[in-house]
Amino acid sequence: MDGEREHPCPPPPLPSSIAADVAGYAWARDTVGESGGTVYRLHGKAGAPDLFLKHGQGTVADDVTDELVRLGWLAAHSQVPAVRTFLRTPDEAWLLMTAIPGRTAYQMLVAQPDNGPAIVEALAVYLRQLHAIPTAACPFNADHTFRLSQAKARIAASLVDTDDFDDAQTGWTADRVWNAMQALLPLAPDPVVTHGDVSLDNILIENGAVVGCIDVGRAGIADRYQDLAILWNCLGEFGPALQDRLFTSYGISAPDKRKLDFHLLLDELF
């Protein structure tokens, strides 16, 4: 990952069973999409693959556990990190995984801006394949009704980071986001198997194609706009032409603005 999205750090305090697995690695802390937990990239050990370690406490430990379970299921449908070690205590969780080859879609767009349309096409192909997985095969519910119940609990517990809102919601309170979402309901359901957090940092590309995904703790059955909205929003950094291309490459000629707005607001609360 590029230097702006991670920084070198010393190893954190670790359980002895994990410390033995990661001896000899250099450490870097990921500064993107941590959702309250900590994510480290372990690299530079001769003859050994790069690894990632996630650590969470309290409710974030539950999120790390959710990711472990979803990794096991998704492995049959998409390339995902292989679990090396998982350790859970009543209040903490550690998840050690192998790294997927390739570079993130964000890195690719920064390094090859002229290749943006082809990169977006690869992302759209990946989403179409993911969304084509039969919903009957997926045991995880992530629809907006379920996510709204989680969001309401996060608001009540003062867990929403309003300083991290998108520019369009700068200065908003979490309650204002909640009320804006309610005004967009109801939504016509269009359930598919979703990744749940398809940011450009969570998709890996190699040789022009998506080779896998990471950060799958929110995967489950939801409206396809759960994925499309987040990816569309991330592409805004690289211009509206690529945002438009996402929908045309995916096969949607007229995006549903109501669903787009709703899912972008919902994401602010997580």
UniProtKB/TrEMBL annotation:
Record domain Aminoglycoside phosphotransferase: where: 38-261
Enzyme class per UniProt: transferase
Catalysed reaction, written as an equation: kanamycin A + ATP = kanamycin 3'-phosphate + ADP + H(+)
InterPro entries: AGP_Transferase (IPR051678), Aminoglycoside_PTrfase (IPR002575), Kan/Strep_kinase (IPR024165), Kinase-like_dom_sf (IPR011009)
Assigned keywords, A-Z: Antibiotic resistance, ATP-binding, Kinase, Nucleotide-binding, Transferase
Entry's EC annotation: 2.7.1.95
Family: Belongs to the aminoglycoside phosphotransferase family.
Name this protein carries in UniProt: Aminoglycoside 3'-phosphotransferase
Organism: Sphingomonas arantia
Phylogenetic lineage: Bacteria, Pseudomonadati, Pseudomonadota, Alphaproteobacteria, Sphingomonadales
